[in-house]
Design goal:
Helix content: 40-55%
Structural class: alpha/beta
Distance between the termini: 63 Å
Strand content: 5-15%
Strand order of the largest sheet: 1-6-5-2-3-4
Shape: elongated
Number of strands: 15
């Protein structure tokens, strides 16, 4: 068996660890779980640290459980939150859980006959029939209000300037999460709970509940919350979260996110978000340091994680799409792009609209009369003669060339290029 804790340690993925955890894991195969809040029908890259921990856990010979909080998701965890969340209904939660399971399958082995295959559990299954009176009597009496009040997540909310304070519903969250640990300890043999460092208080409530109710030991391990080197929030862009669902964040955008991280962040992220070995990562960091302008580390990081999440085919498409904007791509490569990716690749490019009835149209009239790619016909003609004008990545050699509907991308776009870096989209309406 590989030493799981040592694997996480060199990757920089341990924040807090309960004494005895490493020794317990080295005794033999162990079961552990990570909780995932199903408030959306897709995971985003903020969830990936916990998912990668489960992946490493399984890779080291242990049995991972992914717990989706169908019950606790109806309440909302107060940790790191300044206000109470909206509650979700049963139907929405069921849909979200099914989508999350599908995404987790890309990281974890749920389907083999291996004794350490992953399992997905939903705390709604054991909470839905548990009455409030029974829960209060069986669980509530073991954890004091003083103990719960001492947790940072509670203290922070109670001491905040917000007049709303904290509802009883949210206050009980740590007790419900603690019961999850107790239930999985008793029914699934889970002796370890893992999660982000903001979950330490909730996790240790579980270990305390197990100790007080059963007189047995359970363990806890958390990973640091990921931040960017410049102090910004990881996984957020101007347009919001980077999602794993390709409908929310396209593979091209996903690939671009990792490709554009800083050198310092790339050196950190490649340890956390890939399964590459220490030797492979050290060699990649060394190679990058010798020629940082080539961005070999970012390219390796983007390749590994895009392939893991979206598959090799989508990764190759993303690379090809990137080459269209920044490399010497062909018209053939341009035509392979679907409309959504095409518009993402050329996001922010000046766009002009030309009525469809104007076509076929002389290229100079298109670029200097019907649109403002060029300020004058003379300047357009001059640049065509100098070989500086392309339509859909094909050089325009003849100033008398006609542009017809057959040349339009997706039947409605024309990509004009002036010089090497100046792109314009002409939309045909």
């Amino acid at each position: 068996m590989k030493n799981f804790v040592e694997e996480l340690r060199w990757r920089g993925m341990i924040q807090d660890i309960m004494p005895g955890t490493e020794e317990k894991l080295m005794e033999g195969p162990t079961a552990a779980y990570v909780g995932i809040d199903p408030t959306a029908d897709s995971l985003h890259i903020g969830h990936l640290v916990s998912v990668m921990i489960l992946k490493h856990f399984q890779n080291c010979g242990h049995k991972p459980f992914a717990l989706v909080g169908g019950a606790t998701g109806m309440i909302g965890d107060p940790s790191m939150k300044s206000q109470e969340r909206n509650l979700l209904d049963e139907e929405t939660l069921a849909h979200n859980v099914a989508c999350i399971k599908k995404q987790l399958s890309k990281f974890l082995d749920f389907d083999s006959d291996s004794p350490n295959r992953a399992e997905l559990v939903n705390n709604y299954d054991w909470m839905k029939g548990y009455s409030f009176l029974d829960f209060s009597r069986d669980i509530g009496k073991h954890i004091t209000v003083n103990y719960m009040m001492a947790k940072d997540s509670v203290k922070k909310r109670l001491s905040s300037e917000s007049r709303e304070g904290m509802s009883f519903t949210e206050f009980t969250y740590q007790l419900l999460q603690g019961y999850d640990f107790l239930y999985l300890f008793e029914h699934k043999g889970c002796t370890l709970q893992m999660g982000g460092s903001d979950q330490w208080g909730n996790i240790t409530t579980g270990t305390e509940l197990i100790r007080r109710k059963l007189g047995k030991e359970a363990y806890a391990l958390t990973c640091p919350l990921i931040k960017k080197a410049d102090g910004g929030k990881f996984g957020k862009t101007e347009k919001g979260n980077i999602w794993l669902d390709p409908e929310r964040t396209s593979p091209y955008q996903f690939y671009q996110f990792w490709l554009n991280v800083s050198d310092e962040d790339a050196a950190k992220y490649i340890k956390i978000f890939t399964m590459l070995s220490k030797e492979e990562i050290d060699a990649a960091i060394e190679e990058h340091a010798a020629a940082p302008h080539l961005r070999t580390l970012q390219k390796l990081l983007a390749r590994e994680i895009t392939t893991m999440v979206h598959g090799e085919e989508e990764y190759l498409k993303a690379v090809e799409a990137s080459g269209i904007l920044f490399g010497n791509a062909t018209s053939e490569a341009l035509r392979k792009l679907d409309e959504k990716t095409f518009l993402q690749v050329f996001d922010g490019v000046a766009t002009f609209s030309v009525p469809r009835e104007k076509f076929p149209l002389n290229v100079i009239d298109l670029l200097a009369v019907e649109s403002q790619v060029f300020p004058s016909k003379g300047e357009c003609r001059k640049m065509i003669q100098a070989g500086g004008v392309s339509i859909n990545k094909d050089k325009v050699a003849d100033a008398n060339a006609m542009i017809s509907s057959e040349q339009m991308l997706d039947g409605k776009y024309i990509l004009a290029q002036k010089g090497k870096k100046n792109y314009f989209i002409i939309r045909v309406d």
